[in-house]
Design a protein that fits this description.
Distance between the termini of chain B: 20 Å
Shape of chain A: globular
Oligomer: heterodimer
Radius of gyration of chain B: 19 Å
Largest sheet of chain A: 6 strands, mixed
Number of helices of chain B: 3
Number of domains of chain A: 1
Structural class of chain B: alpha+beta
Strand order of the largest sheet of chain B: 1-2
Structural class of chain A: alpha/beta
Radius of gyration of chain A: 17 Å
Largest sheet of chain B: 2 strands, antiparallel
CATH architecture of chain A: Alpha-Beta Complex
Order of helices and strands of chain B: HEEHEEH
Largest interface: A-B, 25 and 23 residues
Order of helices and strands of chain A: EHEHEEEHEEHEEEHHHEEEEE
CATH topology of chain A: Spore Coat Polysaccharide Biosynthesis Protein SpsA, Chain A
Helix content of chain B: 55-70%
Distance between the termini of chain A: 37 Å
Shape of chain B: elongated
Strand content of chain A: 25-35%
Number of strands of chain B: 4
Strand order of the largest sheet of chain A: 3-2-1-6-10-8
Number of helices of chain A: 7
Strand content of chain B: 15-25%
Amino acid sequence: MSTGVLMYCFDTPQTAYHRIAERSIALIKKNLKLPVTLVTDRETHNNITHDVDVDYKIIEKTNTNNFRFYRGHTVPWYNMERARAYEHSPYDCTLLLDCDYFCYTSNLLELTRTDYDFLLHNRVNDITGLNRIQTRLESTLPIVWATVVMFTRTERVKMIFDTIQYVQKNYEHFRNLYRIKFRNYRNDYAFAIALHQLSGQLKTDHFIPTPMNMLPHEYDVLECTDRGIVYKYNNKVNLLANTDVHVLDKELIHVG
Amino acid sequence: MDIGNIKKYSDLAHDLALTKRNALEKCRARQIMAYNGRLFRANADTINLVHTLQAHSKTFVILDVNDNPCEITDPADFLQRLIERNQETLNTLNQLHQQLKKRI
């Protein structure tokens, strides 16, 4: 059975996501030792350093009006393609990762050695200790995080991704139905809605049993090395070593 | 009262608390291990459960982290792996705590 990592990466005028992906891929190769397939568009592909050992799947990215808020600005957000991960993945067992998720351990490999066909996080750990990631009353359904998803090729998983695409097409309806506070399209909610609908509108209870570590975008990454990340906030500098983490500061592409 | 010194101590206490908290999360994340197609926590609860059941039966069924049943057909092997992973993670945590003691 083949196992590999699938990642999506599209540069925007504001952020050279490919540079974040290059760092992330290097860590995957070092710590997970898995093949990587990068789904990207022609323009981003041309920007990538081509000694990166990955397979590419070049697609036309969907024109979207989707946006996200980042440090007081509204920036474009290309996040629609993730719903097609089932068809894009060449692997029997896939670890679908955000390109800004940094694997400093081999912990994710444990998920691939199970009989589970679909696992993702439903809890998050703000590593700064301030719990800024999630506020209360954001929607009427419990959120899941689409940052890290392990899936295999089963009928059920295909149905999950089909439902995610259906939710995406009709997102405004589902956003109202579940009273989701955020107006933009978020994969986290699309995945949560799909799982809720497919589980007969009951709570799903198959999750990655540990919270996902996140570093909020208010924190500046000062250094990003093979061992960990040095970050700063309010003149306090801290090191996070040998821990998988989702980094929201996109300026990290400029640090050493 | 030296307010500057108190603030310095408070900052240090904050940093230490945060470091300990993240180290504990890291330890718990590493304790998750796959066995027989299921996921288990290599913590004291699982080790005690497996040890107790092993004393009564050669095979038994326990629930994994997502409450799915899993038949354990080789308890000695499972227990060995649980203890190894548990001690690996706790040794790392202990080393960090020893380093932090020196900072106070």
